[in-house]
Write a structure and sequence with these properties.
With 203 residues, the protein is mainly α. 76% of the residues lie in helices and 0% in strands. The protein has nine helices and no strands.
Protein backbone atom coordinates (compact mmCIF):
# COMPACT_ATOMS: atom_id res chain seq x y z
CA UNK A 1 0.00 0.00 0.00
CA UNK A 2 1.41 3.37 -1.06
CA UNK A 3 1.88 6.14 1.51
CA UNK A 4 1.84 8.80 -1.18
CA UNK A 5 -0.84 11.45 -0.71
CA UNK A 6 -3.50 11.37 -3.43
CA UNK A 7 -3.70 14.81 -5.04
CA UNK A 8 -7.20 15.60 -6.26
CA UNK A 9 -7.32 17.77 -9.35
CA UNK A 10 -10.04 20.33 -10.03
CA UNK A 11 -11.32 18.11 -12.83
CA UNK A 12 -11.80 15.21 -10.39
CA UNK A 13 -13.82 17.19 -7.84
CA UNK A 14 -17.28 16.21 -9.24
CA UNK A 15 -16.41 12.49 -9.15
CA UNK A 16 -14.91 12.74 -5.66
CA UNK A 17 -17.99 14.62 -4.47
CA UNK A 18 -20.25 11.88 -5.84
CA UNK A 19 -18.13 9.30 -4.03
CA UNK A 20 -18.26 11.26 -0.77
CA UNK A 21 -22.03 11.79 -1.05
CA UNK A 22 -22.55 8.05 -1.50
CA UNK A 23 -20.14 7.13 1.32
CA UNK A 24 -21.74 9.46 3.88
CA UNK A 25 -25.37 9.22 2.80
CA UNK A 26 -26.30 7.19 5.90
CA UNK A 27 -23.86 8.80 8.38
CA UNK A 28 -25.35 11.59 10.53
CA UNK A 29 -23.70 14.99 10.13
CA UNK A 30 -25.61 16.25 13.17
CA UNK A 31 -26.42 14.21 16.31
CA UNK A 32 -26.47 10.42 16.13
CA UNK A 33 -29.54 8.67 17.59
CA UNK A 34 -27.44 7.63 20.61
CA UNK A 35 -26.18 11.19 21.07
CA UNK A 36 -29.71 12.59 20.97
CA UNK A 37 -31.04 10.05 23.46
CA UNK A 38 -28.09 10.30 25.87
CA UNK A 39 -27.23 14.00 25.78
CA UNK A 40 -30.45 15.75 24.71
CA UNK A 41 -33.09 13.58 26.41
CA UNK A 42 -31.75 11.33 29.19
CA UNK A 43 -29.24 13.96 30.34
CA UNK A 44 -32.14 16.02 31.65
CA UNK A 45 -32.50 15.50 35.39
CA UNK A 46 -36.29 15.23 35.32
CA UNK A 47 -38.64 13.85 32.64
CA UNK A 48 -40.42 17.21 32.66
CA UNK A 49 -37.18 18.89 31.59
CA UNK A 50 -36.69 16.21 28.93
CA UNK A 51 -40.22 16.92 27.71
CA UNK A 52 -39.25 20.59 27.33
CA UNK A 53 -35.92 19.78 25.65
CA UNK A 54 -37.65 17.48 23.18
CA UNK A 55 -40.22 20.16 22.36
CA UNK A 56 -37.52 22.78 21.74
CA UNK A 57 -35.48 20.43 19.55
CA UNK A 58 -38.51 19.23 17.56
CA UNK A 59 -39.68 22.78 16.88
CA UNK A 60 -36.20 23.71 15.69
CA UNK A 61 -35.92 20.66 13.41
CA UNK A 62 -39.43 21.11 12.00
CA UNK A 63 -38.66 24.76 11.20
CA UNK A 64 -35.44 23.65 9.47
CA UNK A 65 -37.38 21.08 7.41
CA UNK A 66 -40.03 23.64 6.47
CA UNK A 67 -37.32 26.16 5.51
CA UNK A 68 -35.67 23.52 3.32
CA UNK A 69 -38.98 22.75 1.58
CA UNK A 70 -39.65 26.46 0.98
CA UNK A 71 -36.15 26.86 -0.44
CA UNK A 72 -36.67 23.85 -2.69
CA UNK A 73 -39.86 25.37 -4.09
CA UNK A 74 -38.14 28.73 -4.59
CA UNK A 75 -35.20 27.04 -6.33
CA UNK A 76 -37.61 25.21 -8.61
CA UNK A 77 -39.19 28.53 -9.62
CA UNK A 78 -35.73 30.09 -10.09
CA UNK A 79 -34.62 27.19 -12.30
CA UNK A 80 -37.75 27.41 -14.44
CA UNK A 81 -37.28 31.17 -14.81
CA UNK A 82 -33.62 30.78 -15.76
CA UNK A 83 -34.40 28.06 -18.30
CA UNK A 84 -37.10 30.27 -19.81
CA UNK A 85 -34.82 33.35 -19.99
CA UNK A 86 -32.11 31.34 -21.74
CA UNK A 87 -34.54 30.57 -24.58
CA UNK A 88 -35.63 34.18 -25.09
CA UNK A 89 -34.31 36.41 -27.89
CA UNK A 90 -33.96 39.43 -25.58
CA UNK A 91 -31.31 37.58 -23.51
CA UNK A 92 -27.88 38.24 -24.97
CA UNK A 93 -25.15 35.61 -25.12
CA UNK A 94 -23.26 36.92 -22.08
CA UNK A 95 -26.39 36.89 -19.96
CA UNK A 96 -27.18 33.36 -21.12
CA UNK A 97 -23.75 32.24 -19.96
CA UNK A 98 -24.32 33.86 -16.56
CA UNK A 99 -27.74 32.21 -16.31
CA UNK A 100 -26.31 28.78 -17.16
CA UNK A 101 -23.73 29.26 -14.43
CA UNK A 102 -26.44 30.24 -11.95
CA UNK A 103 -28.47 27.18 -12.97
CA UNK A 104 -25.46 24.91 -12.43
CA UNK A 105 -24.94 26.44 -8.97
CA UNK A 106 -28.58 25.82 -8.04
CA UNK A 107 -28.35 22.20 -9.16
CA UNK A 108 -25.01 21.68 -7.44
CA UNK A 109 -26.40 22.19 -3.92
CA UNK A 110 -29.26 19.72 -4.33
CA UNK A 111 -27.53 16.58 -3.01
CA UNK A 112 -26.18 18.22 0.15
CA UNK A 113 -29.57 19.79 0.88
CA UNK A 114 -31.24 16.38 0.63
CA UNK A 115 -28.58 14.91 2.93
CA UNK A 116 -29.24 17.55 5.61
CA UNK A 117 -33.01 17.09 5.22
CA UNK A 118 -32.70 13.33 5.75
CA UNK A 119 -30.50 13.89 8.82
CA UNK A 120 -33.09 16.28 10.28
CA UNK A 121 -35.88 13.76 9.65
CA UNK A 122 -33.87 10.99 11.34
CA UNK A 123 -33.38 13.18 14.42
CA UNK A 124 -37.05 14.13 14.39
CA UNK A 125 -38.01 10.45 14.42
CA UNK A 126 -35.77 9.79 17.44
CA UNK A 127 -37.17 12.81 19.29
CA UNK A 128 -40.76 11.89 18.43
CA UNK A 129 -40.19 8.34 19.71
CA UNK A 130 -38.93 9.78 23.02
CA UNK A 131 -41.81 12.28 23.14
CA UNK A 132 -44.35 9.43 22.87
CA UNK A 133 -42.86 7.76 25.98
CA UNK A 134 -43.52 10.78 28.19
CA UNK A 135 -46.71 11.91 29.89
CA UNK A 136 -48.28 15.19 28.76
CA UNK A 137 -47.30 17.83 31.28
CA UNK A 138 -49.41 20.75 32.36
CA UNK A 139 -47.65 23.96 33.39
CA UNK A 140 -48.33 23.11 37.04
CA UNK A 141 -46.87 19.60 36.67
CA UNK A 142 -43.81 20.96 34.92
CA UNK A 143 -43.24 23.57 37.63
CA UNK A 144 -43.62 20.93 40.34
CA UNK A 145 -40.39 19.24 39.11
CA UNK A 146 -38.31 22.39 38.67
CA UNK A 147 -36.84 22.54 42.20
CA UNK A 148 -35.79 18.89 41.91
CA UNK A 149 -34.26 19.55 38.50
CA UNK A 150 -32.12 22.51 39.57
CA UNK A 151 -31.14 21.04 42.94
CA UNK A 152 -30.02 17.73 41.40
CA UNK A 153 -28.37 19.45 38.44
CA UNK A 154 -26.25 21.70 40.63
CA UNK A 155 -25.31 18.89 43.02
CA UNK A 156 -24.28 16.73 40.10
CA UNK A 157 -22.16 19.49 38.58
CA UNK A 158 -20.30 19.81 41.89
CA UNK A 159 -19.62 16.07 42.05
CA UNK A 160 -19.22 15.31 38.33
CA UNK A 161 -17.61 18.20 36.43
CA UNK A 162 -17.31 18.21 32.65
CA UNK A 163 -16.64 14.86 31.03
CA UNK A 164 -17.60 12.91 34.18
CA UNK A 165 -21.14 14.22 33.89
CA UNK A 166 -21.27 13.17 30.22
CA UNK A 167 -20.11 9.68 31.22
CA UNK A 168 -22.90 9.57 33.80
CA UNK A 169 -25.37 10.59 31.05
CA UNK A 170 -24.21 7.68 28.91
CA UNK A 171 -23.70 4.99 31.53
CA UNK A 172 -26.31 5.80 34.19
CA UNK A 173 -28.98 8.17 32.87
CA UNK A 174 -29.64 6.54 29.51
CA UNK A 175 -29.98 2.92 30.76
CA UNK A 176 -32.32 4.07 33.57
CA UNK A 177 -34.32 6.52 31.48
CA UNK A 178 -37.50 4.44 31.14
CA UNK A 179 -37.53 3.83 34.91
CA UNK A 180 -37.31 7.58 35.55
CA UNK A 181 -40.23 8.15 33.18
CA UNK A 182 -42.37 5.58 35.02
CA UNK A 183 -41.51 7.13 38.41
CA UNK A 184 -42.40 10.61 37.16
CA UNK A 185 -45.69 9.38 35.64
CA UNK A 186 -46.57 7.71 38.98
CA UNK A 187 -45.88 10.96 40.86
CA UNK A 188 -48.08 12.90 38.44
CA UNK A 189 -50.82 10.34 38.94
CA UNK A 190 -50.48 10.64 42.72
CA UNK A 191 -50.69 14.44 42.41
CA UNK A 192 -53.89 14.16 40.36
CA UNK A 193 -55.41 11.69 42.82
CA UNK A 194 -54.58 13.98 45.76
CA UNK A 195 -56.25 16.91 44.02
CA UNK A 196 -59.36 14.82 43.33
CA UNK A 197 -59.65 13.95 47.03
CA UNK A 198 -59.45 17.65 47.86
CA UNK A 199 -62.12 18.41 45.27
CA UNK A 200 -59.73 20.40 43.08
CA UNK A 201 -60.37 20.20 39.34
CA UNK A 202 -57.75 18.11 37.52
CA UNK A 203 -56.76 19.38 34.09
Amino acid sequence: MSNELKVISIEEIPNVLDEINAAFEDIPFENSAFQTRAFVVAAQITPARAYRAIGLQMHSKIQAVKEHLFNQEKNKIDREEIEWKITQDFTNEFEKRRLRLELAKLNDGQAYGVKLLNDALETLNVLYDEFKKLPRYTREQFESEERKHFSNRLERQLKLPGALESLANMNDDLPNWNTRIRESAAQLSDMSEFKRKLGIAVV
